[in-house]
Amino acid sequence: MSTITTRQIPPLLRTIGSWTSHILLILTALITLVPFVWMISTALKPSSEVFSTPPKLIGSSIQWGNFADAWNYLPFGRFMLNGVLVSALGTLLVVITSAMAAYAFSRLRWRGRNGVFLIYLGTLMIPQEVLIVPMFILMRNLGWVNSYQALIIPWAFTAFGTFLLRQFFLTLPDELEDAARIDGANRFTSFTQILLPLVRPALGTLAVFTFIGYWNSFLWPLLIVSDVNMATVPLGLNMFLGQTGNQWNLLMAASTISILPSVLMVLGLQRYLVKGIALSGLGGR
User: Which of 18, 20, 74, 190 is 20 to 30 A from 62, comparing alpha carbons?
Assistant: First the structure.
């Protein structure tokens, strides 16, 4: 039906539609890039020219030293190390737990499976702010305040990741597992060696989203961490603003440094990210 409809559209209208969509995408990309360009521009300006009138994209001189000053003014290396550690371990844990839960909800037959999955999916509607207080009390009772496990474990079980991977598992034919079972593979072997390699695009997509989520998390680390040595990057940037006052060029330099791990993560998993978004329908199709 869609093929017949496409053939009925005149070539001129299809060309105009294609150009229009490309122009809108380019404009959207440029608008999205503006804050990043201005951040890098401010990071390279002298402090006296940050709020110059009229605004200038490039200052009178390029201040590469702003990055070194921002790195040394606070223990920013420690913040980066904490952020990488928390984000990497959290991402690994989320991918493992989500894959196992998705397998149970998609490939195993047990009574009440769909009902439990709907309840689990319903937890997506609970905002983080509602969970903060009981989560903090639980962490305090466990003696986990100011610890890595308090930053990682409370958010390591996500209905979003389970739902994303479950949809991929449902697209795989049962014959794959049946053939593996005939060859002597048990459930765990067919899960780890047959199914997981086939859902790598979804695993890559989930890993990118989870890493960025942990990396940018601010509210929970703000409540659970009071030791400077345990602070993550968003907390470090907040301290930076408080201690440097109007040194916006140094703050922008620190912000530029802070986005590098996320950029490297996206570039490294770009192939899986694009494929995973396209196959899962997260792109809006």
Answer: 74
Helix (H, G, I), strand (E, B) or coil at 38: helix
Instruction: Check: CB of residue 172 under 8 Å from CB of residue 195.
Output: yes
What separation, in Å, do the N-terminal and C-terminal C-alpha atoms of the chain show? 17
> Which residue, chain included where needed, has tokens 């930053």?
151
Q: Give yes or no for a contact between 185 and 194, defined as CB atoms under 8 angstroms apart.
A: yes
Question: The tokens of 135 are what?
Answer: 């989560």
Q: Are the C-beta atoms of 163 and 119 separated by less than 8 Å?
A: no
Helices (H), 107-218: 113-122, 128-142, 148-152, 159-171, 174-182, 187-189, 200-216
> What was the pLDDT predicted at 54?
83
Query: What does the block give as tokens for 235?
Result: 């907390």
Q: The whole model's pTM is what?
A: 0.82
- Say if CB 206 and CB 94 are below 8 A apart: yes
User: Cis peptide before 54, with omega less than 30 degrees from 0?
Assistant: yes
List phi, psi (to 5°) of 136: -65, -40
Along the chain (285 residues), what's the average pLDDT of each consecutive run of 10 residues? 57 84 93 92 87 82 88 88 94 95 91 91 86 91 93 91 90 86 86 88 90 92 90 87 69 90 84 69 51
**Structural contact between residues 139 and 251, judged by C-beta atoms closer than 8 angstroms:** no
- Report the distance separating Cα 15 and Cα 41, nearest Å: 38
Estimate the share of the chain in helix, then strand, then coil, as percent rounded to the nearest 5.
Answer: 80, 0, 20
Amino acid occupying residue 67: F
Rounded Cα distance between 12 and 18, Å, is: 10
